[in-house]
Design brief:
Elements: H1 2-10, H2 22-37, H3 41-52, H4 59-71, H5 75-88, H6 93-105, H7 109-122, H8 127-139, H9 143-155, H10 160-171, H11 175-188, H12 193-205, H13 209-222, H14 227-239, H15 243-256, H16 261-273, H17 277-290, H18 296-307, H19 311-324, H20 329-336, H21 345-357, H22 362-378, H23 382-398, H24 404-417, H25 420-425, E1 436-441, H26 447-455, E2 460-462, H27 468-478, H28 496-509, E3 518-522, H29 530-536, E4 541-546, H30 549-557, H31 571-591, E5 596-600, H32 601-606, H33 608-618, H34 665-670
Parallel strand pairs: 1-3, 1-4, 2-3, 4-5
């Protein structure tokens, strides 16, 4: 918008195009521009139209009206107005940019790119046009051109040396050092868009999604047309499970370029995470129609179909993505992550070729390694499978930040605060609602199976893995001004404060429920928070999903998690983490007698009905036969076990670790203190 204002001041229209009183045109323009900057293009449109009734030929107002229509996703209406403005002022760079945006909205990609290029010929410093052009080139399948433009864009920055150094550190996984440089750039240039966006990306890598959101909101406030920032903002909000915010941000991106396949893919992701699976499927298919040659829409489609249990269709979508670009590691890994899927010989050979010959990023190489490991494991070649799992884990571990000593220290602090006497002193202080059933444990320990059994009960809503329990910690910390943080800050809570925490949790989780009196919160990593949750919600139930330690750790090691779980990519760290988990659960058993039910996966496999009755009785629920037919439950499942829990109980995963007994010997040594309890 600044360029529109600048144009009016520097290039007043002369001759036949001028109206009787140019001051009136300028005043109308300035008022409309104010509304545009405030994010109200509808009011800007009205003001421009009112002013244009006095002189339909005033090009500055026509151009601004065209921009206002663009912001509302009305590119076809904007085009003739922008061409009218450009006919009067052919050298108007911002006008060419807006025309490019209008054409992109109409999916006239080549014409849109040409207009953006013309805008930059006239004004190479037009940052918003640069960013729009980079995105358009990428959507057009011209990735190399987009990359060249991006690099040129960065080189033109006076801080390019700082950016180059930060980018190098970022690629090496030295996130703290890269972040420091980006923050220095911001100190010198508080409106540097790339620094803001890259800081947001680092924050998202560290799962600090609230912080990422703040950086990106600053970026779009400075540059309301910054398409990539709107997309990233929606991603951050989606990870926070702020579904409304994520939808609003991606819809704003769609008004900027509805013909962008990237925008449509993310819109589909938001719809899928919101439970609007039919809409998501339609959106992904629409995106595939926009850009038939890119894999992303097909992967999104496959993920959605997998979530709702349409495995055959999901396989077809993933295979289509792999056929479009065999180097796309996500497509192959997604196939392997179906668990019950088996690769064909030709597919294994294709993956081997790519893994051996292609220049891959470490992340892609890790995905191929895991996928190929699963393929050869299914054929019984366990030594080769372990080699590939180890390779994938080494690559992924180098990309993760995890400090096992910090984990141990935090857990010890939690136990020191939430000791038996403290828990007894505050027992009953929290909110009395018995609705929540917390399922804790470790990943890959049978927690999804337990959730599926409970979800089959008429009185239970299954809500998947929720972040709200962790947010209680953030709430406690926000209310302190003396820098004392959780867990020590919990020592000062009493009475109504515990009830307020419980009420906050129930309020925050209400949006995931469908009306049943009880609901599950299956977040295995909540096990250190059992004490906190028991005080905030004294009538909640806690179910600890347990599995043989070697099977649990091996299953984690064989799983490339979408995010989180950084302790799973090194066998020694996995073993130590398992010991920490056992130590923490032993503490809760002693400090909270009767509040935690241990459910052993192997026992469920051996006696489904007996263990189901035991589970339901503990939760205060009457027995229902449907719980024994849990695979018939038509619910969406997003976890790695989705396909496994859509079939009757089976025992092939029990003692699976024996296939890798030799390779797991060092892990067994670490787990020796707990192994005798499992036979």
């Amino acid at each position: 918008m600044e360029r529109l204002e600048y144009h009016v001041r520097r290039h007043p229209i002369q001759g036949a195009a001028a109206i009787a009183d140019p001051k009136l045109a300028r005043a109308a323009f300035e008022r409309a521009l104010t509304f545009m900057r405030a994010g109200n293009p509808g009011m800007a449109e009205q003001l421009c139209r009112d002013a244009l009734t006095e002189d339909p030929g005033e090009p500055n107002l026509s151009g601004l009206l065209g921009a206002a229509l663009n912001r509302q996703g009305r590119g076809p209406e904007a085009e003739p107005l922008l061409r009218q403005a450009l006919a009067a002022e052919p050298g108007y760079a911002k006008g060419h940019e807006e025309l490019g945006r209008s054409l992109l909205q109409q999916r006239r990609t080549d014409e849109g790119i040409a207009s953006l290029e013309r805008a930059l010929e006239l004004d190479p410093k037009l940052q918003s046009a640069q960013l729009c052009l980079i995105g358009a080139l990428g959507d057009a399948g011209r990735g190399e051109d987009a990359e060249r433009r991006l690099q040129s864009f960065l080189r033109a920055d006076p801080l390019r040396e700082w950016f180059a150094k930060a980018a190098e550190l970022h690629r090496e996984g030295k996130l703290e050092e890269a972040e420091h440089i980006y923050r220095q750039i911001l100190q010198r240039d508080p409106k540097n868009l790339e620094a803001l966006r890259l800081l947001a990306l680092i924050a998202m890598q560290c799962e600090h999604y609230g912080q990422a959101e703040q950086f990106l909101k600053r970026a779009v406030a400075i540059a309301p047309d910054y398409l990539a920032a709107w997309i990233d903002l929606s991603r951050a909000q989606l990870e926070k499970l702020d579904l409304e915010g994520a939808r609003a941000s991606i819809e704003r991106a769609a008004t900027l370029n509805p013909g962008s396949a990237q925008v449509q893919v993310h819109l589909g992701n938001v719809q899928a995470r919101s439970g609007r699976h039919a809409e998501a499927i339609e959106t992904f298919r629409h995106a595939a129609g926009i850009s038939p040659s890119i894999p992303a829409p097909w992967i999104g489609l496959g993920n959605t179909l997998k979530t709702i249990g349409q495995q055959a269709e999901a396989i077809e979508a993933y295979r289509h993505a792999a056929a479009l670009r065999p180097q796309n590691s996500e497509a192959w890994w997604s196939l392997s992550n179906l668990k019950t899927f088996r690769f064909e010989d030709a597919e294994i050979e294709a993956m081997q070729r790519v893994l051996a010959e292609e220049q891959l990023t470490d992340e892609s190489r890790a995905q191929f390694s895991f996928a190929l490991a699963k393929a050869v494991e299914d054929r019984g070649d366990y030594p080769r499978a372990f080699e590939l799992y180890a390779q994938g884990n080494r690559l992924r571990r180098a990309l993760e930040h995890y400090d096992p000593v910090q984990t141990e220290v935090i857990n010890e602090r939690i136990r020191a605060v939430f000791h038996a006497a403290f828990l007894e002193r505050h027992a009953g202080s929290g909110h009395p609602d018995p609705a929540p059933i917390f399922i804790v444990g470790l990943p890959r320990s049978g927690s999804t199976l337990i959730e599926q059994i409970l979800a089959s009960h008429s009185q239970v809503d299954a809500t998947h893995e929720l972040p709200e329990a962790g947010r209680l910690v953030q709430r406690i910390n926000r209310e302190r001004s003396d820098r004392i943080a959780y867990p020590e800050a919990a020592r000062d809570l009493a009475g109504e404060q515990w009830a307020a925490l419980g009420r906050a949790y129930l309020d925050d989780t209400r949006k995931y429920r469908r009306g049943a009196p009880r609901f599950t919160d299956k977040m295995p990593n909540n096990f250190p928070s059992v004490g906190l949750l028991s005080l905030a919600l004294p009538n909640a139930r806690f179910v600890n999903a347990r599995r043989h330690p070697l099977d649990t750790c091996l299953s984690c090691y064989r799983q490339l998690f979408a995010r989180g779980q950084p302790f799973t990519y090194d066998l020694a760290e996995l073993g130590e983490y398992y010991l920490e988990y056992e130590k923490m659960m032993a503490h809760w058993r002693e400090a909270l007698p009767g509040r935690v039910l241990d459910v052993q996966y192997e026992d469920v496999v051996a006696d489904l009905e007996g263990q189901t009755r035991r589970l339901l009785e503990f939760c205060g629920l009457p027995f229902e036969d449907a719980c024994l037919r849990y695979w018939e439950t038509g619910r969406a499942i997003r976890t790695a076990s989705s396909e496994q829990v859509r079939q009757p109980i089976y025992d092939s995963s029990v003692n699976f670790w024996r296939n890798y007994e030799r390779e797991l010997a060092p892990l067994a040594d670490i787990l020796r203190p707990v192994l005798p309890a499992f036979g």
